[in-house]
Amino acid sequence: MERLDITAPRALRLALDTQPVTHGKVLFAWSLAAGPALARAASVTWNEGTLHALAKSEPWRQELARARPVILSRLAALLGSGIVRTLTISGTADVAPSSTGATPPRR
User: Within a domain: residue 14?
Assistant: First the structure.
């Protein structure tokens, strides 16, 4: 019997492999790869192999930048290598946490 932490990503990868590469598919993979908090902390767009993440605040931009290698690795595992080649992260003006749906990390 296989462990769930091995089986679940493999099942997701197989399910995603049967679908065409679309903006929606990449955004779905983003939400899985980044996790709930980081996925909510940025608006994301995908264009020609580059995933652009616009962080909702400077603290979230820093957290996304720290997590970039892990997120890229997870995206490659879910989508295959070459679908998302680059992850750019930029910040925006700080907004109130209540309007973002996510609370910035505390230091």
Answer: no
For position 75, what pLDDT does the model report?
94
Question: What is the reported pTM?
Answer: 0.76
DSSP the chain: ---HHHHHHHHHHHHHHTS---HHHHHHHHHHHH-HHHHHTEEEEEETTEEEEEESSHHHHHHHHHHHHHHHHHHHHHH-TTSS-EEEEE------HHHHTSPPPP-
CB 37 within 8 A of CB 64: no
Range of the domain at 83: 22-94
